[in-house]
Structures are given as C-alpha cells and as structure tokens.
Amino acid sequence: MHNKCFNIWLRFHIMAESMGKIYVLRIGHRPKRDVRITTHVGLVSRAFGADGFILEGDDPKVVESISKVLTKWGGRDFEVGAVEDAKAYVEKWKAGGGAVAHLTMYGLNISGLDLGAMRKRDLLIVAGAEKVDRWYYDNADYNIAIGNQPHSEVAAVAIMLDRLGNGLELDRTFTGGRLRIIGQARGKKVE
Ligand SMILES: C[S@@+](CC[C@H](N)C(=O)[O-])C[C@H]1O[C@@H](n2cnc3c(N)ncnc32)[C@H](O)[C@@H]1O
C-alpha cells in the first residue's frame, strides 16, 4: 500500500517536472457577492494541483482564508496574490512565454482538445464571474469549455486541473502544514 502511494506520488512529480507551472487567475470578483465562490476557486486551485492563485481586485478576506488553509493543511509553495489590472497580468504572462487558457462555456469543448502542448508551457487559467470582457476571448491562446453548458467557475477550474493532471494531482502530498488527514472508510483521523 505504501509503495502504491509512493509510485503515484512519484508519477505526479515526474509529470509535474515536465510541465510548466499552472496559475489560476480569477477575474471579475465582486467583494459583496463572490467572497465564498472566489475562495472556493482558490481552494480548488490549491487542492487540484495549481501552483498559484491570483485574484483581480482587492479583497483581503479571500486572500486571508486561502492563506489560513495553507498554514493549517500545507502547501506553502502555493502562491496567493492579488493584482489591480488583470489584463496587464495576462499580457505579462504571455510576454514571459506562458500560454493563457480562458474557461468559458462558449469555447471549444475540452473533450476534443489535446492538452499535451498546453502543459509544456507555463499556463494561466482564467476563470470569470458574471460577464467576461470580450478582450479575454480575443487575447487568450485557448478559449476552453468544460462542456458547452453554463455551470460554475469552481467546477470548471476543478475539471480543467484534473484533466491537466490526469487525476494524479489528487494523490499529491502537501508539506509544511500543521495537520494531515489520514483518510478513513469511516470517521475522521487527523495527525
Ligand atoms: C457564472 S459563469 C458565467 C458563464 C459565462 N457566460 C461563460 O462564458 O462561461 C462564471 C464563470 O464560470 C466559468 N464557466 C461556467 N461554465 C463554464 C463552462 N461550461 N465551461 C468553462 N467555464 C465555465 C467561466 O470561467 C465563467 O466566466
């Protein structure tokens, strides 16, 4: 059992080595309405294998909640930040050689896409809120639909990361936290 876990962990890390870094950029966050859902986008980014989460705008509540999770459950290498100008962040990312994948139900369905090339470069995944400016559709390298039906930015980011990580990201270990869960068939075990 121990060997099996180690092999999965090793496969994820070997795969991650050959991949660029993955960041999630949350645009259009409305501090009064979106605190919970934006926090969830950040938590899903961390748990599903991204290397960082960047919030457009200023909302210390979101950044604080995610930072608390990092202290408690680990993953201090995960970067959490905020930017005033998300378009400038996208432009800088592209100028540095990275690719940009904008998640939208109007894009090309992920099922028909080859994610191999995308994974070789640094990848910025852009997740929107209510209305996304046309600029993102025009400036993203990829407009990707997680199915062409409306649903949620939390689900879209989770499935995108899971496809990029081939599911292996779920076996990743998070270091540096105070607590660690030992999964149980029943009950809770936390070390
Ligand atoms: C409330 S939805 C708004 C739906 C939006 N009209 C759109 O273009 O996808 C907020 C965000 O969730 C993500 N999203 C929702 N459904 C999606 C889907 N089927 N595929 C990819 N992303 C989706 C997008 O990032 C979108 O900006």
From TrEMBL:
Organism annotation: Candidatus Micrarchaeum acidiphilum ARMAN-2
Its function, per the record, reads: Specifically catalyzes the AdoMet-dependent 2'-O-ribose methylation of cytidine at position 56 in tRNAs.
- GO MF term (any one): tRNA (cytidine(56)-2'-O)-methyltransferase activity
InterPro entries documented for this protein: Alpha/beta_knot_MTases (IPR029028), tRNA_m1G_MTases_N (IPR029026), tRNA_mtfrase_aTrm56 (IPR002845)
Q: How does it assemble?
A: Homodimer.
Name the Enzyme Commission number(s) assigned to this protein: 2.1.1.206
**GO CC annotations on file:** cytoplasm
Q: What is its main location?
A: cytoplasm
State the name under which the record lists this protein.
tRNA (cytidine(56)-2'-O)-methyltransferase
What's the family?
Belongs to the aTrm56 family.
Q: Does the keyword Cell cycle apply?
A: no
Tell where it localizes: Cytoplasm
What are the BP-aspect GO terms? Answer: tRNA nucleoside ribose methylation
Where along this sequence does the record place binding of S-adenosyl-L-methionine? L103, G128, A129, E130, K131, V132, I146, G147, N148, Q149, P150, H151, S152, E153
The cross-references to Gene3D superfamilies, in alphabetical order and at most eight, read: 3.40.1280.10
